[in-house]
Amino acid sequence: HLFTMTAMNYLLLALACLAIHPSEAQSTHWWRAGDLQRAKEQLANGHWHAAYEGILQAANGHLTGAPFSVMNKTLKAPSGNQHDYTSIAIYEWPCNATPPGCKDYPGGHWPACDSSTGLPWRACDGIEDEKAIQEGDAAQSSRMQSGLQALSLAYYFRGNETYADKACQLADVWFLNSATYMTPILKYGQSCPGSSDGSGSGFIEWTAFPALIDAAALLDAAPCFKDKQASMQNWWSSFYNFTLTSSEAHEEDDMKNNHGTWYDSTSMSLALASGRTSDAAERAKAVGSRRVDPQILPSGQMPLETARTKGASYTMYNLEAFAHVAVLASYSNVDLWTYVGSKGQSVRQAVDFLIPFATGAEVWPYSQIINYTWSQLALPLRHASIALHNSTYETLLCSFFDSDVKYLEQQLNLVTPPVYNVTGAECDNKRVHRTTKGWKPATVTQLYTLIPGVVG
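-> structure tokens emitted (456 positions)
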């Protein structure tokens, strides 16, 4: 089987896992405690060495260097308080300096441009303004988020307090320290110079909230976090309270595309972390009618995503959001994976809609202005295989990676380990290869025989 290790590696990792200190009873939600424990046991039994080494490598990359802070940005917060998170929307450009191929969002209309000032800025859907991104908090926030996750997972699986100490530093500097903390509000994210000081879209820069909250929970057993637990919990609760009354939060909640789905993920994770289980349950019960029904056609297409300039990327992105929401909704006994709307809309159908394109059976017919990889489907496919008891989704997932090694080294294998073990031969039979236009199968015959029981 793919994740079997050598006897020597088995011995070394078994000894490492026996030495792990963090408590086994962690209060996590997105990273389900049972999944983490099962992965730890599999690691001790000689599995997932490549994924383990990948997590350690990622964590090691965050051990050096200064921590990140909202105080480091060059962009001035509209409030005058640099503790307030501030960013410019990633696709916004000065209206007198837009890049080639610039197109507004579907259905959007640019206002008149003052060529002398470049105001107001214009959206160029799918084309990032890296200079503007670096001026705000988004870039440092992203690095903090990935660092906190990697370090906390390394601590959980390895037990080395060096990882915990650095994770504690990142959390303290970004969220808690009086000189460097981020105010628990999000009013000035994704601004548009000359048009708005911020928008509800700022929440899309914090889609990692479920994982961040769980990463902090994994630090609960660390000595460095003992005096920070209560303050961290207060920060989550304060931010959640902000979302209940904020016009920016309500704006994002009303979005009918991936923004709305991700907002459900954020809101439920914060509610669960704050002990507001009834709030999480209320939102979970409405996902079908508020998100699935209006976003997904009976065919599985999500038209508001396929209309974007990066239609494939955004469709997979929204499926990732639905996978997050499904896990968080399960704590309220809501099974999103088996939900079917009155017209046949479902998350499963949205997954199956992409399979002919992902395997190369059909050419992606919508816009996609950048190269992409269908391996972005790994997370929703893993969760679909588990929730729907379907092993074919897992073998399809494996085939999206160029080699067995690439499949085995995915962090996903440790935070949400598969329930179906697949062999290298099974993956090779379904393996597909990336091209600049998407993916093509290793062979061109009988494509649909490779994925029985999934499509249709």
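DSSP finds 19 helices and six strands in the chain.
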